[in-house]
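Record passed on here:
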Amino acid sequence: MRLSRLFARTLREDPVEAEAPSHRLLLRAAFIRQVISGVYTFMPLGLRTLRKVEQIVREEMDRAGAQEVRMPAILPSEPWKLTGRWQAYAAEQLMFTLHDRSGRELGLGPTHEEIVTPLVAQEYESYRDLPVNIYQIQWKYRDEARPRSGLLRAREFLMKDAYSFDRDVEGMRESYQKMVDAYRAVFSRCGLSIVEVEADPGLIGGDVNHEFMAKAEVGEDLYVSCETCDYAANVEAAVAAPPDAAEPGAVPPEVVHTPGAYTVKDVTALLGVPPARVLKSLAHEIDGRPALVLVPGDRELNEGKLRRAVAPAEVRMFEDADFDRHGMLKGFVGPQGHDGVLVVADYRIRGGSEWVAGANRADHHTTGVVLGRDFEVDVWADLAQVRDRDPCPRDGGSLRVGRSVEVGHTFQLGAKYSDPLKATFVDEDGIERPFVMGCYGIGVSRIVSAVVEQHHDDAGLAWPRAVAPYEVCVLIANRDDEGVVAEAERIYAELEDRRVEVVIDDRERTAGEKFADADLIGYPVQVVVGRRGVSTGTVDLKLRATGERTTAPLERAADAVSQLLASAP
């Protein structure tokens, strides 16, 4: 490829809309261009890298025994309604929906469990057909409320989704482990440093699931890991060791005047107590019943943990009208003195005593509120967001919070989809049983950004060889020197003959501009052919990942490039 013909114009300045380093650099290096918020065109360089990631994923899926299919992007609503996810996605406003000319409800696929499950049931009817794992690499669509950071949070994205079907849980676990091993190989080949964590299944569902997190300083996904054992989890799923129960308090409760103190911050400022001694009483409805969810004042409630703690009950936070309907005062609610109210509490409440809580009177709080004397708890659970230095639930070690980008997610689904969709097979006893399923997603386009997050510097991108758009760039430093041009063209031709993925920078630009673009685009190896080198019979070589510079004899330049390329990360 001649850069004089490449459809790409690099940018000298950072785009104002760019947030993450990957977003900024992929735009500057002309890998992507924004169409609308969260929707991008892949330029020639970007498409080459995307296809390389895609091919790595395909090879590892095939090696693991999965078979590739292609399912439609336009999906009927009916199976989604049977599983309840049409309603769930509608509630989260995540699915793009449309109607065809006959008025039928359709959606653009965010994932394909409801399509693949009937497909397998239609083709396979006996236990002898199992196990089977099928996958696709296809564009997905989710109407993100706040698309941001380029390809890291997009509304249109390329994803690999695979689905395993087994006859029993043991078989599902074996299929699951094959996919986990394949994921590890994918990420290693792409040059990513990954943390595997326990995770929240979200709208996909399933009892066991893991996220594969690429470490990134600007990542929007937080995870915790223990300093002394291998425990790791997404913060949405992470738990901490519960505290020991505190000695019951003996101080009698006292109602105090707290005018206008609606928040924990207001109460602590007014009464001079630390936030950890204030009891948050968060009003909810759980299956239509009024409920108070208790967490310490220095902690945030994790709504996902709450939903799991009371599943399958439906959970809804109070709106303003609900307080009046249930006789509660917003901002001054406490757990004491209520009849018919479900109380769900975080384990950390056991570790405190003599709490400050709302007095259930306007502009008043109660001090000295004691568990067991002034209020009781109906349901105990880990409900609060884990934070830095919390104790590990396995060995009591210190948990540390890190930032990352989720690039893969695996789920053990069981019969979550096969049951409502009546997808069954006949076992050896002639009994119909539901398929036992797993599903496995990899963000192919997101991997592109995740690699950039881990492989860049102030000058630009520094692609690992496996996913670089081109492996080598031959730079003509002196375009006006026929001898320099001839030698550069010769080296370029020799590398092409060796099937090296090479470009030649033959543009009418200054040497400085060419050097800057080569660093920005991130070719693993740069070959600089200039007047001084030609006169002394040498070329200059640079390994982009390390910045190491060497020289090689001009007549053996292609050999030197091949050797240097072999050492590139």
